[in-house]
Amino acid sequence: MSPDMEDFTDALEAVLNGSADAAQRCFLDVCVREDPGCRRAYCEQMELHILLRVSHACEDRSVAGSDGGSQSESARTGAEVTDRTFSRGVAEALRRSGWRKIAALAALLLGGAVLVREWVPATAWKADLRIPSGDASVPPVQLVHQSRAERLELPHVLPGYVKLAKGEAKVRLSSGVELSLLGPLSLEVESGMEARLDEGRLLAWVPPRASGFTVRAPGLTAWDIGTVFSVAAEGENSSLFVFKGSVQVLDASGDGVDLCEAGEGVRSIKGRTPFKVATEGGAAGSLFAPVCGHAALAQPQKALAVARQITELWIAKYVPEEASLVRSAAQREAAIRNAPQRLVFQKSAWVRSPASRLQEGSGNMKIIGAASILAAAAMGAQTAGATSGSVVVNASPCNNRHWMTVFTNEVPLVWEWPSNAVRANLAIVGMSGAVATNFTGLTTNYLWRAFAADKPIAEDVYDLTLTFLGGGDAVVGVQTSRLAVVTGAFGKTSVDTKAEATPWPTISENVVIPYNAGWAQATVNATNSQLVIAKQEGLVQTNRLPATEGYFGWKIKRSEWGYGTFSLALMFPGTVTNGWDAVLMRVPDGMMIRLY
Amino acid sequence: VRQSEKGEGLFEMELAGAQLALLSYIAKLLGGLQDAHDVLQETNLTLCRERADFDPDRPFLAWARTVAYYAVMTWRKRQARSRLVFSDETVALMAEGLACDVDPVDERLVLLEACKKKLPQMMRDLIDSYYAQGERLAAIGVRLGRTEGSLANSLYHIRGLLKKCVEERLAQTERCL
Predict the structure, then answer these.
(1) Could you give the CA distance from residue B74 to residue B83 in angstroms, rounded to a whole number?
(2) Which residues in chain B are closer than 8 Å to A17, comparing Cβ atoms?
(3) pLDDT given for residue A577 in this prediction
(4) Most Cβ neighbours (<10 Å): which of A133, A346, A441, B29?
């Protein structure tokens, strides 16, 4: 909730219950006078406030009447008393005017809904509120259809659990609500009108008669008003997205997050306030169009994927600090769904044959990868075309680290200035800091001081982005590069050759992780690579690496990772379904004592 | 006293039927229910006194609202400025917007009952505590371990929710008619 909105609800509530101070009255006055939206909201809220007051006061009177007026005076509300005074006043006014019949009627009417209710046939009330009752011959959760569903379990009585290991299934509840379930999933159905999603994804269609259907997920409660919406739960995080109609979303403490209409949703991340997302912009609109409305029901998988993509687009734009978290959650979900059967990997050393080295040598630049090509050709860091005095030439047919590694504390960067560029921005972003430089005229080189001392204190991986801007600040070109600072390039480094040694058991700082598909014969022909970092019982981050060899910077300090045990898996998809594994621990600074 | 034959008894019906709509109108202009009952009473008295001007061929509510507006303004003049929620300008602006409001408030009251029953239990508990038991937000907050601001926010959303539910049901009713 924005601060203005918070001020508005506080002021409104204070005015409604008569406790507003001067500042709150002034705030509401200005808001209602100046802002038509505020005026409309105020009028709507006031009307509901009155209806609720009248409605409850009448209920109290009904109760008092039915029990012979035994309700004690002290139990009566202030509203009731004022209503009674009010009705007496009108009755008196009418009596004075000589209309006894209407005085009696007014006294009744102003008593509230006792009379109002009598205007509605009792059958209409029943019809309005009817939810199909349970039929002993019909199971409480009926299977409508399934597709490649594995280990689907449906409850025979409620409350009970629906479980689905894999695939898709559609079920119908006694209320008429239909749920498309995507495995793996665990759903507790409490009644035909309430369910709790512990894990997995579902798409709900709620017919008008079941309006009010409620789904709870970690951190969120969705209260439906006749609609099509999806809910996804993963660990202690969850998300919701509406394809048709409206859903009121509450957070874990029962506070309203907001009312979501079609194309809107809410994302809840443990420890953070849930926030609303929306379909915004052409790209999101194009994504949403094919699954808008009932179309989502025909393709639940696609609808859920679109919901996730739209949420990611919104978060990347408006909540960038959450973006990595959301991506990692999505990747974890995908990783779980698509997890291949992992094989035992043999980490025995192998020797590349001379033939294969020569074959690769002819295509050296191809296997270096896009980032390093740019480093060489566009932003030459110590390349053959650089203007620096000393140029390092690496003749190795493969594993040419000079395109990606820093060897001096001052790195000359060289590029060609596009003819249509007016100015340029250079951004150098590493784990431990960032540098930004503007070039206001034709510039073709820049001396970047990567670190102050002769030798680096810490290792880092830097992403370099040079953006050329033309007239009107239009982007006319972008060049990127990635350069690593590794301490081993500046002197001796310790190597533990003992086979039984436990390398790298703990970490405390940001980490530079080298990777290379050429470490094993089985992966030498890999075309891409990924590093999955999983915190025990926590976050999972799948990093698609830009090449089959290079350095990955794992920022752990001042990140969401925190302390604990981490599993790292380096894989080269497309070659074999196995990879390199490591288990690391990060403990808080200080002495660690292990007890036996 | 002028009273057309066809208007006999109609005034009473109109007046009785307009009470909730008038209360809503007055409360909106005053910024609360606290004094709205008194102003409504004044309005009713004025309407009764001016019954002779009642024209059954013209909308009763519009006439009654005009009378209510002057009752509101008279009431405002008697109050210290520090008690008023809205400025004269804001009241005039709102009155203009509400003058032609034809919302069927009474029907909403009926539909509200159905909508309340559809609320999740925790929401029902909150509005019961606040509206039925007359419990103050501070007391509810202590009991539930929540701040007054958070409860105000919840009530705001619940009312918005009920409003939407009522509107949808009203639209359905109209479609059925």
Answers:
(1) 14
(2) 136-137
(3) 54
(4) B29
pLDDT digits (tens, 9 = 90+) for A438-488: 998 888 888 888 888 888 888 898 888 888 898 888 888 887 778 888 887
Nearest CA to A333 out of A325, A343, A341 is that of: A325
State how far residue B54 is from chain A, nearest Cα, in angstroms. 14
CA dist A150 and B10 (Å) reads 70
Check residue A84 and give its pLDDT. Answer: 36
Residue B90 near chain A (CB below 8 Å): yes
With contact defined as beta carbons under 8 Å apart, do B123 and A254 qualify?
yes
Give the gap in angstroms from C-alpha A57 to the nearest C-alpha of chain B: 7
Structure tokens at A483: 């350069």
Contact with chain B for residue A226, Cβ under 8 A: yes
Q: What is the pLDDT of residue A70?
A: 34
Would you call B62 an interface residue with chain A, using a CB distance cutoff of 8 Å?
Answer: no
Tokens 């399934």 -> residue: A146
Place of tokens 């991506």: A327
Count how many pairs of residues, chain A against chain B, have C-beta atoms within 8 Å.
229
How much is the average pLDDT of A427-440? 88
On whether the CB atoms of residues A25 and B31 are closer than 8 A, the answer is: yes
Question: Which of A9, A49, A94 is nearest residue B153 as measured by Cβ atoms?
Answer: A9
**Nearest residue in B to A99, CA atom:** B12
Contacts 24+ apart (CB under 8 A), B152-155: B152/A9, B152/A10, B152/A12, B152/A13, B152/A14, B153/A1, B153/A6, B153/A9, B153/A255, B153/A256, B154/A254, B154/A255, B154/A256, B154/B123, B154/B126, B155/A13, B155/B126, B155/B127, B155/B130
Q: How far apart are CA A330 and CA A384, in angstroms?
A: 42
pTM over 0.95: no
Chain A residues 98-137 with CB within 8 Å of chain B: 99, 101-102, 105-106, 109-110, 113, 116-117, 119-120, 125, 128-129
Query: Mean pLDDT over all residues of chain A?
Result: 71
**Hunting for tokens 């808008």 — which residue is that?**
A292
Determine phi and psi for A41, rounding to 5 degrees. Answer: -60, -40
Does the beta carbon of B116 lie under 8 angstroms from any beta carbon of chain A?
yes
Please say whether the beta carbons of A274 and A266 come within 8 A. yes
The crossing angle, in degrees rounded to 10, of helices A36-66 and A22-34 is 120
Q: What is the DSSP letter of A416?
A: P
Task: Specify whether the CB–CB gap between A183 and A301 falls below 8 A.
Answer: no
For residues A9 and A23, what is the distance between their CA atoms, to the nearest angstrom?
14
Q: Using an 8 Å Cβ cutoff, are A290 and A303 in contact?
A: no
Residue with token string 């196995």: A578
Task: Give me the residue label for tokens 């038991």.
Answer: B133
CA A410 to chain centre: 40
Residue-wise pLDDT for A488-531, tens only, equals: 777 766 666 665 555 555 677 788 888 887 777 777 777 778 88
Q: Does B118 touch chain A (CB under 8 A)?
A: yes
A255 CB neighbours in chain B (<8 A) are 150, 153-154, 157
What is the pLDDT at residue A192?
85
Question: Is A253 part of the contact surface with chain B (CB cutoff 8 Å)?
Answer: yes
* pLDDT for the residue A100: 35
A39 vs A343, more confident: A39
